[in-house]
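Subject: for your reference before the review

Hello V.,

The reviewers asked for a structural picture of the protein, and I figured it would be easier to keep everything in one thread rather than splitting it across files. Below is the amino acid sequence we used in the manuscript, unchanged from the supplementary table.
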Amino acid sequence: MQLVKCDTSYRRCLARPHRHVCICTASLSGLNLYACGQTATVSVVSGTLHTMKLLTLVVLLFSASIVCRAEQQKFDNYKLYTLYVEDDEQAEELHNWYVNGNLDFWSYGTLNDSVTVMVNPELQEYFEAMLDDVQLESELVEENVQSLLEHEQEQRGIHTLSKRRRPQKLPQKPTSIDGVDEDAVDFDHFWTLDEIYHYMNRLEKTYPNLVRVMTIGKTFENRSILAITVSKDGRINQTRPVVLVDAGVHAREWASHMSALYLIHQLVEFADKNEDLLYNTDWIIIPVANPDGYVYSYETNRLWRKNRNADNVLCTGTDLNRNFPYRWSYTSHSCTDGYAGKSPGSEKETQALMLLMAEFANSIKMYLSVHSCGDYILYPYGFAYKPVPNAEDLYALGLQAAEAVQKIGGPEYLVGQASGLLYLATGSDDFMYGAYGVEYAYTLELSCGDRGYGFIIESNQIETIAKETFEMFKVFGMHASIQKMSKRP
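And here is what came back from the structure prediction:
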C-alpha cells in the first residue's frame, strides 16, 4: 500500500474538504482516503482489494479519525461571498451547487435578494467560472473565514476569563463549580451545553410550581435531549393551548439556542411581567435539539450543521430538519450538509422530537422551529409550491410578528411560504402541519446580526437578536392562547 500526499486534482471528491475522514472514487482502479482535510494523506489501493488490505484500510480510517477529533477544524483561505440572485437560472445553479455539497450557504435568499456562501479554496476556480457562466453578481465579504472563527474564539476566551475574575455573589444554593458563578445569567456569550442544562435544572429546582425538565430522548453519542415545560399549573395537563418551540436543530446556528434560552429566561424568571403569555398558554421548549452537533460545533468544527450519527457509509451526520417522515425524500450522499438520512425518521434526535410532538399533539396550537440566519418567517409547505388551506391566516400572523420586531428597531423580516421564499425542501414545520394537523407551524430564520450574514455573530448582538425574537414569540404565544381546545376522548 502506497502513501502519498493529497492531490488537489481530486476536487470533485464526494467528501467535503473539512470532513474528518472519507472515501471517494478517484479512478476506476482505486480508492483514496482523505483524512483531516487539506493536510490529509491519500491511501491508493490498486487492483483487487483482498481481505487484509481492507482490514488495513479500516485501521487507517479509525486511526485518522482519532487524530482528527483532537484538533480544531481550520478554514484557512475559505472565502465568504454575497451573491445577488436575479433570475431562475442563477437560483437553479446555486441550488445544484448546494445539493452536490460544493457550496456552504450561510444565509438564504429569494429572487432579487442576496445570499451568503462559503467557498472552498480548492473550488475557487470552478466557483469563479460559474459566476461568469450565469452572470451572477458577487461581492467578496471575507477573505479568510478562519479569521472570523479565531475572533469568535478570542471573545469566548475573554468572557471565560472575565467571569472567573468577577467578584462572586453568594449563591442561594451551593451550585458554584470551578470558581465560576453558575447562577449568573447573561446573554453576552454563547453558552456551552453544560451551562444550558445546568440552567434548566436550576430553574426546575427554584421554580417547582412553574417548571419541569424532562429527558425526551438520547442522542447517537448518548447525550440527553432536554425539554423544559413552563405552566402555571406546574405541569402540562393539556387543558390549555401549548406552544412548542425547538432550537438548535442545526448545530452551528448558535443564535437560535440563545434566543430559546432568552425565552425561557423571560417566561420563568420574569413570569409576573409576562403573565399574559402564561395565563392561558403552556410552553414546551427544547433549546438544544441537536446536543451532539452543538458540542461538536463548540469544541471541534464551528461550522458543523448535522447530528453526529457515525453509522453512515461515507460521512458522519444527518440534517435533522430533512429527516422528518412527512414527504421525506433522499437528498444526495451523506457528505453533504443537507443529507436527509438513510430513511424517514431514522435519527434518534428526530425520533425524540416526534415522540414529544405525538404526546402533546392534541394541545399543541403553535409550533415554532428556530433557525438562523436570514430574517424570514416561513410557513408550510416547503416540499411543494401548493399553498396550504390557511395560508392567508399564517401570512397575516407572520406579518404581525415581523411588525413587532420592527417596532423595537429590529430588521425587516420577510413572511411567506417556505418553498416560495427559499427552495423546495421538507422540514419539521411541514411535519407538524401535515402529520399532526397543527395549523400554525413556522420556521423562524433569525437575524444575521450587524454583519448581515452568517453564523458568526458578535457577542454584543446575542441579546439584541434574542430580544427581537422574543417579540415574535409574544405575538405567536398570544395567538395560541385564544385557540380552542378540542375535547379529549
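For the response letter, the relevant points are probably these. The CA atoms of residues 185 and 199 lie 9 Å apart. Residues 1-70, 168-180 have pLDDT under 50 and may be disordered.

Happy to draft the paragraph if you're swamped.

O.
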